[in-house]
Amino acid sequence: MSDQAASLRKRAAAKAESDTDTTQVSDPASMFGAKHSTRVITVTSGKGGVGKTNIAVNLAIALQLMNKRTLLIDADIGMANVDVILGSVSHRNMLDLLEDGVELSDIVINSSFGISYVSGSSGIERALNFTRREKNALHHKLADADKLADIILIDTGAGLGRNVLDFIVAADETLLVTTNEPTSISDAFAVMKMYCRNSKKRNIRIVVNRVDDPKESDDATRKLRETSRKFLDIPITVPIECAGYVFEDRSVQEAVKKQMPFIVNSPTAPASKCIIALANNLLTGREIKVKRGWKNFLRRLFS
Ligand SMILES: Nc1ncnc2c1ncn2[C@@H]1O[C@H](COP(=O)(O)OP(=O)(O)O)[C@@H](O)[C@H]1O
Ligand SMILES: [Mg+2]
To answer: pLDDT tier at 18 (50, 70, 90 boundaries)?
Structure first.
């Protein structure tokens, strides 16, 4: 942890000194590694404002620190704000791929925090009305993103929109962010219900944000599990699990105000420790068999 903290501080200092806080990948080919399976994880929630983007951004940085090349994609329709939290201004986003001559390497940004990311766009609403030709172009141009990363994290919008559901059903794993408030839990339950109707997989785990006590996350998980058992008939052999929790922590707001990821701004703060624990859990916890990976994710998304 102290090594990680030191490394984070170094990155933060480098960011503060540098005006060019984002650069485009100069030689994407150099990043292309050997054939491997890329984990595709969506971060979603039932209700907006529960901390999805903060968790996605900081988790991406934590995974990168654990030597997993991580690509973060901002797919929150209408509320794309990964840029805001990273304190960067992107001139390119996913939709630019629809232009002739724009390739993946043109839209992937290397942030100074070690992760690469693809910026969202409020115009991404258009995604719902893509023509077949546009879908094919996107599908084709995004195909090699798995060569850039071991883990692709996707920050989706909140709620039950078709677009959100498409992402979580297509992905191998989903982290469903909730707080312990009844409204947030009941909205999370609604997502879970739709997920179970639309997907045979059960790789959905919850992350309980803004807890004052770890017991609160057990509480939220239990409530969700009980409701789901009662109403959804989820086989008990595949329980609803909690992948982690994040403490209610002022350092989150402080970092957001500075437009810095909190794990960089206050690496040893309680929320940062929770993110490190979550990343650890994702990497060392129960094995997720990667059966589909990125290419199958795209196939499902654009089919
Ligand atoms: N663990 C936390 N502790 C304190 N405040 C938090 C925490 N998580 C989120 N917040 C607050 O909630 C706001 C919304 O978070 P955000 O990640 O943008 O939510 P979402 O992406 O779900 O809409 C943040 O700007 C921050 O002020
Ligand atoms: Mg968000």
So the answer is: very low
